[in-house]
Design a protein that fits this description.
CATH architecture of the largest domain: 3-Layer(aba) Sandwich
CATH topology of the largest domain: Aspartate Aminotransferase, domain 2
CATH superfamily of the largest domain: Type I PLP-dependent aspartate aminotransferase-like (Major domain)
Number of helices: 17
Radius of gyration: 22 Å
Number of strands: 12
Helix content: 25-40%
Shape: globular
Bound molecules: pyridoxal-5'-phosphate
Structural class: alpha/beta
CATH class of the largest domain: Alpha Beta
Strand content: 5-15%
Largest sheet: 7 strands, mixed
Order of helices and strands: HHHEHEHEHEHEHEEHHHHHEHEHEEHEH
Length: 425
């Protein structure tokens, strides 16, 4: 990969590199298995002594190309795609923690991630402390314990649209000797590359903008290659792994130790792999990501500016608006735009929100966000309904919050649809 290549070019060209006579387009290698000429070679593959594919649960040529493209977009040394964003979040943490360990996470995160951390992983013996990401450094540092193994945050939170101060959080994590994991789903690497601000691991729900067309669920983990695993807190990375004849990840794989370990231990044992057809669809989405994100952002800013002045709108939250509490952070970390998601409340609270949604025509009510078609959701009664009122508040979600995912249609048609439904309230 040419290090000077622009991200637009990487979206289109990174990953699949056809040789003479190969198909120009990334093929779908719909095969679970791979043929080898000798039993000895296959044995070496199983011992991770030679690179290559031997079973699609661990790796597959179609998946590998998409992984290389995502790593190239985020500026990492390697990536692992997963069956969903949930699997990516799970693996990102499990690769660092075992029962008895602890993680610090910001509180304003996606509801599914919150549930995974606070309920399911707690049952696995991994404890989480949720912190206000805007607290000062001393308060944040106080949440860490001797057994803390990571700090987790979202670049732009879903759906409360807070912006993480990535440099501050990276400094705190590194001061505590642990990696900083960032879920970069909403901005995508087109708008923000957290590794450039000190993140060690980046995760994605590729289900959202990366796919961009609401066609296939998927996730990704990207390894920056920058974290030093040998300083004592992470012996699994730098001592022999008995499940691979004593391989030492930091010695054999150097800067890619984290992402190789995630694949060969977690993907091997748990098997939340993406399938080749899904990876093919994801790759198509990635080819136009650099064209879609600016349109999502300019449409969302126009919609937010319009709604801000609308008499029926009680409040509006879009970090791109001057006066928004996250505006300064957004200008620093996301100067080209935050994403296409806008949240707002309507005069009349929860009941008015529901009536407004029912009156929309172009905009669909769906359990999704971040695709080409404008869509809308009421988080308090759907994606976040398992949260208590206190947890909702900590996640920055009020009961009247409407989450509008602005698509890439003509913005005048989107605004006209919103206006006709607001007028009928
Ligand atoms: C949707 C989402 C997830 C979960 O991803 P799935 O692909 O739905 O499993 C994780 N993080 C964020 C920020 C999300 O928006």
């Amino acid at each position: 990969m040419d290090p000077k290549q622009h991200i637009e070019t990487r979206c289109v060209q990174a990953g699949w590199q056809p040789k003479n006579g190969d198909p120009r387009v990334l093929p779908i290698f719909q095969s679970t298995t791979y043929k080898y000429d000798s039993a000895d070679y296959l044995g070496k593959l199983f011992d991770l002594e030679v690179p290559g594919h031997f079973y699609t649960r661990l790796s597959n040529p179609t998946l590998e190309c998409v992984e290389n493209k995502i790593a190239a977009l985020e500026g990492g040394v390697g990536a692992l795609v997963t069956s969903s964003g949930q699997a990516a979040s799970l693996f990102a943490i499990l690769n660092l923690c075992q029962a008895g360990d602890h993680v610090v996470s910001t509180a304003a995160i996606y509801g599914g991630t919150f549930n995974l951390f606070a309920i399911t992983m707690k049952k696995m013996g991994i404890a989480f402390t949720f912190v206000d990401q805007n607290a000062d450094a001393a308060q944040l540092a106080a949440a860490f314990r001797p057994n803390t193994k990571a700090l987790f945050a979202e670049t732009v939170t879903n759906p409360s649209l807070a912006v993480a101060d990535l440099e501050k959080l990276a400094r705190i994590a590194h001061g505590q000797g642990v990696p900083f994991i960032v879920d970069n789903t909403f901005p995508t690497p087109i708008l923000c590359r957290p590794i450039e601000w000190g993140a060690d691991i980046v995760t994605h729900s590729t289900t959202k903008y990366m796919d961009g067309h609401a066609q296939t669920t998927g996730g990704a983990i990207v390894d920056s290659g920058n974290f030093d695993w040998t300083h004592g807190k992470f012996p699994e990375f730098c001592t022999p792994d008995p499940s691979y004849h004593g391989v030492v990840y930091t010695e054999r794989f150097g800067r890619a130790a984290y992402i190789v370990k995630a694949r060969v231990q977690l993907m091997r044992d748990i098997g939340a792999q993406q399938n080749p057809f899904a990876a093919y669809i994801l790759n198509l989405g990635l080819e136009t990501l650099h064209l879609r994100m600016p349109r999502h952002c300019s449409n969302a800013l126009a919609v937010a500016t319009h709604l801000e002045q609308h008499p029926r709108v009680a409040w509006i939250n879009y970090p791109g608006l001057p006066g928004n509490p996250a505006h300064a952070l957004a200008q620093k970390y996301l100067p080209d735009g935050t994403c296409g998601v806008v949240s707002f409340g309507i005069q009349g609270g929860r009941a008015a929100a529901t009536r407004f949604m029912d009156g929309l025509k172009l905009t669909a009510i769906v359990t999704h966000v971040a695709d080409a078609r404008t869509c809308v959701l009421h988080p308090a009664s759907t994606t976040h309904r398992q949260l208590t009122d206190e947890q909702l508040q900590a996640a920055g979600i009020s009961s009247d919050l409407v989450r509008l995912s602005v698509g890439i249609e003509h913005v005048a048609d989107i605004i006209a649809d919103l206006d006709q439904s607001l007028a009928a309230l």
